[in-house]
Amino acid sequence: MHVHPIAMEELIERDPSLLTGMREHFDLRTDVQPLEVYINSMDISDIDRAVLFALDCETSIGCKIPSNEEVSYIVDETDRFIGFASVDPNKKDAPEDLKNAIETLSLKGLKLHPAMQKFDILGENAFKVYEVAEELKIPVVFHMGMTWKKGLRLSECNPLRIDDIAIRFPDLKIVIAHLGWPWVWETAILIMKHENVYADTSGVYVATPKEHIKLALTQMIPATISERCLSDKIVFGSDFPRIEMNKMAEAVYELPFRKKVIENIFSKNPERVLNL
Amino acid sequence: MKFTVEKITLISKDETELIDITDKVKEIVRNANIKSGFCNIYSLHTTTAVTINEGLECLEKDIAEFLQKIVPEELPYFHAHFLPQDGRLGVNAYCHLRSSLFGINYVIPIENGELLLGGRQKIYFIELDGPKKRKVAVQIGGE
Fold first, then answer.
1. Residue A44 near chain B (CB below 8 Å)
2. pTM of the prediction?
3. Could you check whether the bond before residue A241 is cis, i.e. omega within 30 degrees of 0?
4. Mean pLDDT across the stretch A190-214?
């Protein structure tokens, strides 16, 4: 879960404006890497398939990084990826856009970033999008928690705001990205409370992947509680290319959890979220 | 005196990997048509290295394991904080340190139009933060 193909060479060759989007809006200035590197990273991490995100920020910053069509293009190149669409809830046509992306581009979920896309996740427009996602039986991943970009509001990303959505749409599978860090307990109570709410492990903020994931799931939340109460609801996510997939995977593999719990994080929980 | 620079592109498959680039460098030297001079093999990345050693798979494994032992991944490095210029955290201090141990270039004499290498010597590009796409410059100077 949680790979951004914005730094993928094959996409940037087709659409050089993606590079500007990545550097100026996504604030990521790492080297561009070819598809082969994405696959090699998955291979050394024992990851069979990864979820690639589109991100539609047309209203807020005037670009898609990348578009649904671009994600679909990569998904069609290899069987190693599952594509997630993104729509801009500020646009009147967003519900219809989502329906088209799922039905015509074979994308399997929806990615939203409330702070970057600058929409109200509890607003009427957004609720219309969730309605369609629920009808289509696709999961929705919300960026939650920390964002470094100046000018984006952290208050939009407090996972507690997901509570209202989970209550109103009990059949909609919701994934809180980044464990909602630093609001990890807020994320924990939501995934314990709602059958339809999950969280992914992606991203690091103040430490290496190993330090970060240990801090979040064994210290901020004691390991016993994570194993006992969260192990059916956490899915592996990396946030590649902000963090290398292999580094994040190794960090999660090394958590002091039972083998079955680690299997849940890498296999069973994502399969449930993705309806596989 | 003539100087040329050519670049080799590599895609690594593992986090730590020794890639034998001897044949590629030899070909560049041959095409340069220089009888006597030097060949400077220079990596364009700070989490990689260039070295010469015996071309054996067992030694490649030993070098990789030794690096992992002498520069452990898990130490409280200063580098592991948000780097605004990159838009991400510095999660690879150990890769930079391992690179510093070897250095990122190697200079080999050219004699009679060929690299002056011993029978057991192979030129290695060392990936220390892979998998990644990498570039190595091969500068040749001489006449």
1. yes
2. 0.94
3. yes
4. 96
